[in-house]
Amino acid sequence: MQLALSLAARGPLRDPNPRVGCVLLAPPSPGGGPRRILGRGFHRGAGTPHAEAAALDDARSAGAEVRGATAVVTLEPCSHTGRTPSCADALLGAGVAEVVYSVADPNPVAAGGAARLRTRGVHALGGLRVAEGEALLRVWLTGVIERRPFVTLKLASTLDGRIAAADGSSRWITSEAARLHAHQRRSEACAILVGTGTQRSDDPTLSVRGPAAGHAPQPLRVVMGLRDVAADAAVRADPELFVHLRTHDPVTALEELRLLGVRHVIVEGGPTISAAFLRAGLVDEIDAYVAPILLGDGASSVSSLDIGRLRDASRWATESVRPLGVDTLIHLVRDTRANAEYDRAVAAEGVAA
């Protein structure tokens, strides 16, 4: 499964289809021992063979017999025939005896592959390394389950949470290494979003620059807010990439982006727009670039979240911490259990007191 996950990660980030990997194992030998890999494959994008078909093709091209094999797949094989045949049918036609998958397919159009395999006598088992599988698929899963783009909130601040000094100066709080990483992250997203306030004060291009610029097409440059965007604004340099969302509502903004085919958006706006997405509960992960600087005064990275008590704080789980030059990148994901754990800890202290 680890090999299948690593294969899946080679798939395109911006594709509408999920990133899936598949490994075919030979049937168990009578004497036991390690099972030979017959074929491997991953989905290379919409319209190309799915991972299971790619792995079958790989095995057959090497002259391997796949009847009785085990297919190890990162996502439940689909039961839908679209531009490509059903993966469940492809595995049945090949005579595969067993299928082990990580994540169950939540897409009502394609789900049911495991059940179809079982009705035809194939042993189908799901739930292997689910957390890793879901992490790989989280952009796609958000689109299918919540019917909206996946949202990354980018914060770049000092140690005390400032994004500008008292005089308004903000370039540059973070180092070149942090900025290069932020451009790499931009290259992975479909759209970069700021508010009209940030657009007017900073006149950003919202483009991918540096070494990451050649890795993928440029993302959409999105400005959200009611105020007009000047005709000579930097975000208008490529008119076909510019989008103005005349709304203050994050839900409306994400629905408009979904209709444009956006699957992953990075919110890079100022404190007002960051707080709006956080208050709406629409942030899926946070990239917090922290510089070893103290300002004391100046603009905060996030404006009011209307939180009056510590127990109601917006809490996040730290997924990774990475040095970037003199700065530190803290990558955080949603943590639905954090507030309950805080309440238990406070209660325990109260009993002990």
UniProtKB/TrEMBL annotation:
The keyword Metal-binding applies. Binds 1 zinc ion. It comes from the Bacteria. GO terms for biological process: riboflavin biosynthetic process. NADP(+) binds at residues 156, 172, 198, 202, 270-276. Substrate binds at residues 170, 186, 206, 209, 268. Its cofactor is Zn(2+). Residues 1-117 form the CMP/dCMP-type deaminase domain. It catalyses: 5-amino-6-(5-phospho-D-ribitylamino)uracil + NADP(+) = 5-amino-6-(5-phospho-D-ribosylamino)uracil + NADPH + H(+); 2,5-diamino-6-hydroxy-4-(5-phosphoribosylamino)-pyrimidine + H2O + H(+) = 5-amino-6-(5-phospho-D-ribosylamino)uracil + NH4(+). Pathway: Cofactor biosynthesis; riboflavin biosynthesis; 5-amino-6-(D-ribitylamino)uracil from GTP: step 3/4; Cofactor biosynthesis; riboflavin biosynthesis; 5-amino-6-(D-ribitylamino)uracil from GTP: step 2/4. GO terms for molecular function: 5-amino-6-(5-phosphoribosylamino)uracil reductase activity; diaminohydroxyphosphoribosylaminopyrimidine deaminase activity; zinc ion binding. Its EC number is 3.5.4.26, 1.1.1.193. The keyword Transport does not apply. The active site is at residue 52. Zn(2+) binds at residues 50, 78, 87. Keywords: Hydrolase, Metal-binding, Multifunctional enzyme, NADP, Oxidoreductase, Riboflavin biosynthesis, Zinc. Pfam families: dCMP_cyt_deam_1, RibD_C. Converts 2,5-diamino-6-(ribosylamino)-4(3h)-pyrimidinone 5'-phosphate into 5-amino-6-(ribosylamino)-2,4(1h,3h)-pyrimidinedione 5'-phosphate. In the C-terminal section; belongs to the HTP reductase family. In the N-terminal section; belongs to the cytidine and deoxycytidylate deaminase family. This is Riboflavin biosynthesis protein RibD. It comes from Pseudoclavibacter terrae.
